[in-house]
Amino acid sequence: MTKIRADTVGCEGVLHFNNAGSSLPPHQVVDAMVDYLRAEEVTGGYEIAAARATDLNAVYDASARYLNCEPGEIAFAVSAGDGWWRAFSSIPLGVGDRILVGHSEYQANAFGWLQAREQGVVVEVVPNNPAGDFDVEVFEAMLDERVKLVSLTMVAMTNGAIHPAAEVGRILKASGSEAVYLLDACQAAGQLRLDVQELGCDFLNYTGRKFMRGPRGTGVLFARGDVHAKLGHSGFVDGRSAQWTTADSFRYAPDAKRFEFGEFGYGGKVGLGVATNYMLAVGIDAIAERVALLSGLLRFGLSAIPNVAVLDTGTHKSGIVTFDVGGMTASDVQAALQTQGINVSTPGVMLAQLELGPRSIDAVVRAGVHYFNTEEEVARFCEVVAELR
Ligand SMILES: Cc1ncc(COP(=O)(O)O)c(C=O)c1O
User: Fold this and answer.
1) Which of 28, 124, 165, 305 has its CA 20 to 30 A from that of 271?
2) Tens digit of pLDDT for each residue in 193-224?
3) Cα separation of 375 and 134, whole Å?
């Protein structure tokens, strides 16, 4: 823990509970990026990319180790939304086809299926059960051959519930459904074990900057090797995704590279590789255990404060803890905490209409704890919240 804190330079200055927004990277991530940018400065972008191919490719190997897949099934993306949209836009959908979605979908995903609805695709929301979990029994009953896409967000960004993503994969497999299973693991990656063989998803996307502790402007899309047979034309193709083979024809890259573009911040890609390897070295099971411990302590501490309501739902809870302070707006709470050197975020209903709309919640205060946080920080956080009124 001492080394992890020392590696996390930001711990010295802030109490950072905004890991579900954007975490603090270990200094190794920043050092690798700065080093790469300096090398670009003096050597030339193309030349250094060729010379540092191993550093640039680290993200494929490390992500594949994390997700238990082949490096060729990994595409580098510049955000979770970027990866999600590249996957989504390659799924052929026609009038009358059905998309089943969960309650915890993020706005960018919703824009995708709402656009599809304008083209005659039927979008249906699978209800949560009374505990707040994606209801797998109702889901199973809703399946038929017209379902072409299942779009599920594994960890809810506005209440922290962990939905039963692997169970969804098992049900899809057992039913013989041909639907594409697109799993948004944006808030899960970096705090939970993600094994795409167990999850049974065709696609899985996440961002680099949240619990992965990578740089901004980075992300990962897993695309299962055999999913290409179910797909159409993504609509986003450049010289990385395809080859212009003759004047009249082109050929997609044979693997997940077909979802990539060739231009992005190369330093960021190096940084995400370093962040992923750092996470693997700490160990994802140890991370998950510590995040569960700290978030449990935080929920317990906040629940004991009069006038504070913990808003989390779901049987299995993640490192995301959401709450409300009576008589204060979420942004007032955030601002007050910031004056004490404490970072949180305040996701609102426009990011998660299906989660917050029915509960008539405008915004929640969200504390996302990570393994580099400490029990003392949790205690101090609760003390400061208790004094807010
Ligand atoms: C569940 C979920 N999916 C997707 C996203 C979008 O991530 P990005 O901004 O990297 O596209 C977020 C961001 O908060 C999220 O919480």
Assistant:
1) 165
2) 999 999 999 999 999 999 999 999 999 999 99
3) 31
List all residues 6 or more positions away from 28 whose beta carbon is below 8 Å from its beta carbon: 7, 274, 278
Q: How is residue 280 written in tokens?
A: 């693997």
269-312 per-position pLDDT tens digit = 999 999 999 999 999 999 999 999 999 999 999 999 999 999 99
Q: Distance from the CA of 43 to the center of ligand 1, in angstroms?
A: 35
Q: H or E segment at 313?
A: none
- Which residues does a 6 A CB cutoff place in the pocket of ligand 1? 79-81, 106, 108, 153, 157, 184, 186-187, 207, 219
Could you give the domains of the chain? 2-25+284-387 (3.90.1150.10), 27-281 (3.40.640.10)
Q: Is 186 in a helix, a strand, or coil? A: coil
DSSP one-letter string for 106-125: -HHHHHHHHHHHHTT-EEEE
Residue 110 in 3-state DSSP? helix
Rounded Cα–Cα distance for residues 168 and 173 (Å): 9
Q: Report how far residue 192's alpha carbon sits from residue 208's, in angstroms, rounded to the nearest whole number.
A: 14
Asked if residue 134 lies in contact with residue 102, where contact means CB atoms within 8 angstroms, the answer is: yes
Which is nearest to 163 in space by CA: 197, 195, 187? 187
Residue 297 CA to ligand 1 centre (angstroms): 26
Residue to mutate (ligand 1; options 106, 153, 194; most atoms within 8 A of CB)? 106
Q: Which two tokens stand for residue 245?
A: 């083979």
Q: Which two tokens stand for residue 7?
A: 């590696």
Centre of ligand 1 to C-alpha 4, Å, is 26
Instruction: For residue 31, report the distance from its CA to the centre of ligand 1, in Å.
Output: 25
